[in-house]
């Protein structure tokens, strides 16, 4: 969702339908992020924030844009540091930490500026934070929530990873979540900036799989099957390094790995054969491409 999938059109559509819209900032130059924030604001009066990956090399510049534009909130994942949340607190912007463990919950409770947390399980799409990449939200959420409550954390706690429909949402709320975050379901909407080929790949996917394919060193979850039933092999010969990540095997030695950025952008541009299609665990249960408003209606009213 954070690599050119959830941009202004999708974030604004979700916000306009009563949800919380999120612009994924990874792989966006600072000026393009600024343009997306302003475009989203021109399309809705609803809540629109930004997700930034701390692992990205342009993190500080993107965070600066969010503060300058006074976005409604900033969610930070793929790494942790106290400094960014302090800056958000000083700017009076709610900061959400994306966490995947009890240890991270304890740390979040001791960090000024964290307004809320997103508990993301191993059934989420893309790069995975939990040590056990197969842990579900139903297994991960209760102990994390218990730790947060034990330490008197008073902010909202959001459940994420492997959620697809109203039944999942109600179950998460019954478990104690204050809200839910859905990635794959909204990536598969009309307003999503994913290519038509990428949306078709999600529609035809039979499920998801965890692979240790990423040069980041983290497990990731993608569709089943990929072309020819296997993950794509992205050539390293002549591949430009964009230095988009602080730590990356391709950046360290381009002859030993592929460029994860290029693999994701290939799919975004429609070249699934040479790309990578991340997805959550419930992708096999979704076959349509509705509008974001229709997804919101299904979640909130069941219609």
Textual characterization of the structure:
The chain is 36% helix and 16% strand. The chain has two domains: 8-192 and 289-301, TIM Barrel; 196-283, no CATH class. It has helices spanning 8-16, 30-43, 59-68, 82-90, 102-109, 137-150, 166-174, 184-187, 196-204, 249-252, 260-268, 292-301, and strands at residues 20-24, 47-53, 74-77, 95-99, 114-120, 126-127, 157-160, 179-181, 207-211, 220-224. The protein has 303 residues and is α/β, with parallel strands linked by helices. α1 packs parallel to α2. The chain has twelve helices and ten strands. The model has no long low-confidence stretch (mean pLDDT 91). It is globular, with a radius of gyration of 18 Å. A seven-stranded parallel β-sheet has the order 1-2-3-4-5-7-8. Strands 6-10-9 form a three-stranded antiparallel β-sheet, with no helix packed on it.
The count of β-strands is 10
Q: How much helical structure, as a percent, in the residues?
A: 25-40%
Poorly predicted ranges: none
Strand content: 15-25%
What's the domain count? 2
Distance between the termini: 25 Å
CATH topology of the largest domain: TIM Barrel
Q: Can you tell me the CATH class of the largest domain?
A: Alpha Beta
What Rg do the Cα atoms give?
Answer: 18 Å
**Secondary-structure element pattern, one letter each:** HEHEHEHEHEEHEHEHHEEHHH
- At CATH level 2, the architecture of the largest domain is Alpha-Beta Barrel
């Amino acid at each position: 969702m954070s690599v050119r999938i959830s941009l202004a059109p999708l974030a604004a559509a979700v916000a306009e339908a009563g949800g919380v819209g999120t612009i994924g900032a990874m792989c966006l130059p600072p000026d393009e992020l600024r343009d997306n924030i302003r475009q989203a604001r021109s399309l809705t009066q609803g809540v629109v924030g930004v997700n930034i990956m701390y692992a990205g090399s342009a993190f500080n510049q993107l965070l600066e844009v969010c503060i300058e534009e006074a976005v409604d909130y900033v969610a930070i994942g793929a790494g942790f540091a106290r400094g960014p949340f302090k800056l958000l607190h000083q700017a009076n912007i709610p900061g959400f930490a994306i966490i995947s463990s009890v240890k991270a919950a304890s740390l979040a409770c001791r960090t000024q500026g964290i307004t809320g947390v997103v508990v993301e399980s191993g059934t989420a799409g893309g790069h995975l934070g939990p040590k056990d990449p197969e842990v579900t939200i139903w297994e991960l959420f209760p102990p994390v929530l218990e730790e947060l409550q034990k330490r008197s954390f008073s902010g909202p706690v959001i459940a994420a990873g492997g959620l697809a429909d109203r039944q999942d949402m109600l179950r998460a709320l019954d478990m104690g979540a204050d809200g839910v975050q859905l990635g794959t379901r909204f990536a598969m909407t009309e307003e999503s900036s994913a290519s038509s080929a990428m949306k078709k790949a999600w529609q035809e996917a039979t499920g998801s799989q965890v692979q240790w394919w990423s040069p980041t060193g983290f497990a990731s979850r993608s569709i089943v099957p990929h072309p020819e039933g296997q993950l794509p092999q992205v050539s390293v010969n002549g591949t430009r390094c964009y230095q988009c990540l602080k730590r990356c095997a391709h950046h360290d030695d381009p002859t030993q790995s592929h460029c994860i950025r290029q693999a994701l952008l290939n799919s975004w541009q429609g070249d699934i054969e040479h790309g990578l299609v991340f997805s959550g665990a419930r992708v096999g249960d979704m076959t349509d491409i509705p509008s974001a408003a229709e997804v919101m209606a299904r979640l909130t009213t069941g219609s």
